[in-house]
């Protein structure tokens, strides 16, 4: 089945530094990638939607200059948290969708990245 | 208004018993899909079951079934013969096919604990 590889699984960084999270679709072409943020014991909140080769569409309240999303190829999307601060500490998870898949299929999730900013 | 509502923050069930996790939704889109995902403590999202708004029959996948009541806008997940490995967070999600694009909207989740 479809697999999305997300790295790193855990990262600890110092306040003020930037962190890059990668999501790769291993056996399909991910025309659309979704990036979510999840606080402990809470729901997944969509941050942005990116389509290959075009700018990401950010949800209301998400700072696009802070959370940089690049979807330069059909198999790779990256989320960069710039100038990270402790309040950015969270679980980030990506989801990829292949063009043309049926409505009930195609949402393949990565395994998530636990970011801790100290 | 919340698009997906899960009113049970936590549920307990005994092993081998059935359990129902509630989900109600709100949409004016006539074409939509409803999903259930399981999230163990490790964090990955595991797809369980899907119900389309035009599907005539309730979806079933092994021990999982979806009690779809369209008029009430509810899509409850039923897990039969619960196992210890079913202990996890469960999320209901919706995709609005006409106006919502491809994105999924998630509920707040239900933490299920299966006991011996």
Textual characterization of the structure:
The complex is a heterodimer of chains A (118) and B (116). Chain A has strands at 4-7, 10-13, 19-25, 30-38, 44-51, 57-58, 67-73, 76-81, 90-98, 108-109, 113-117. Chain A is an all-beta fold. Chain B is an all-beta fold and 116 residues long. Helix content of chain B is 0%, strand content 50%. Chain B contains no helices and twelve strands. Chain B has strands spanning 4-5, 10-14, 19-21, 24-25, 32-39, 46-52, 60-61, 64-69, 74-79, 88-96, 105-106, 110-115. In chain B, strands 2, 5, 6, 10, 11 and 12 form a six-stranded mixed beta sheet that branches. Chain B has a four-stranded antiparallel beta sheet with strand order 3-9-8-7, with no helix packed on it. Chain B has a two-stranded antiparallel sheet with strand order 1-4. The radius of gyration of chain B is 14 Å and the shape is globular. Chain A binds chain B through residues 32, 34, 41-46, 49, 91, 93, 95, 97, 103-105, 107, 109-112, 114, and chain B through 33, 35, 42-45, 47, 50, 52, 89, 91, 95, 97, 101-109, 111.
**Roughly how much helix do the residues of chain B carry, as a percent range?**
under 10%
Structural class of chain A: mainly beta
Mean pLDDT of chain B: 94
Please report the distance between the alpha carbons of the first and last residues of chain B: 38 Å
**What string, H for helix and E for strand, traces the elements of chain A in order?**
EEEEEEEEEEE
* Class derived from helix and strand content of chain B: mainly beta
**If you average the pLDDT of chain A, what whole number results?**
91
Termini Cα gap of chain A: 37 Å
Q: How large is the share of residues in beta strands of chain A?
A: over 45%
Care to count the β-strands of chain A? 11
Write the layout of secondary structure elements.
The complex is a heterodimer of chains A (118) and B (116).
Chain A: E1 4-7, E2 10-13, E3 19-25, E4 30-38, E5 44-51, E6 57-58, E7 67-73, E8 76-81, E9 90-98, E10 108-109, E11 113-117
Parallel strand pairs in A: 2-11
Antiparallel strand pairs in A: 1-3, 3-8, 4-5, 4-9, 5-6, 7-8, 9-10, 9-11
Chain B: E1 4-5, E2 10-14, E3 19-21, E4 24-25, E5 32-39, E6 46-52, E7 60-61, E8 64-69, E9 74-79, E10 88-96, E11 105-106, E12 110-115
Parallel strand pairs in B: 2-12
Antiparallel strand pairs in B: 1-4, 3-9, 5-6, 5-10, 7-8, 8-9, 10-11, 10-12
């Amino acid at each position: 089945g479809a697999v999305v590889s997300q790295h790193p699984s855990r990262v600890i960084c110092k306040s003020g530094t930037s962190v890059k999270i990668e999501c790769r679709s291993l056996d399909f072409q991910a025309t659309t990638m979704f990036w979510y943020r999840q606080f402990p014991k809470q729901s997944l909140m969509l941050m942005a939607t990116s389509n290959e080769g075009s700018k990401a569409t950010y949800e209301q309240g998400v700072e696009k200059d802070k959370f940089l999303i690049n979807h330069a190829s059909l198999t790779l999307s990256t989320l960069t948290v710039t100038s990270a601060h402790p309040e950015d500490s969270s679980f980030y998870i990506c989801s990829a969708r292949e063009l043309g898949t049926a409505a009930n299929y195609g949402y393949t999730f990565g395994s998530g990245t636990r970011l801790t900013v100290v | 208004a919340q698009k997906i509502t899960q009113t049970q923050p936590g549920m307990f069930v005994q092993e081998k018993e059935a359990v129902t996790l509630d989900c109600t939704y709100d949409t004016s889109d006539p074409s939509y899909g409803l999903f259930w995902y399981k999230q163990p403590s490790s964090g990955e999202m595991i797809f369980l079951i899907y119900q389309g708004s035009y599907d005539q029959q309730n979806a079933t996948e092994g021990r999982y079934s979806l009690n779809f009541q369209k008029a009430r806008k509810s899509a409850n997940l039923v897990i039969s013969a619960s196992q210890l490995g079913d202990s996890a967070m469960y999320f209901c999600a919706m995709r609005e096919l006409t106006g919502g694009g491809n994105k999924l909207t998630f509920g707040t989740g239900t933490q299920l604990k299966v006991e011996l």
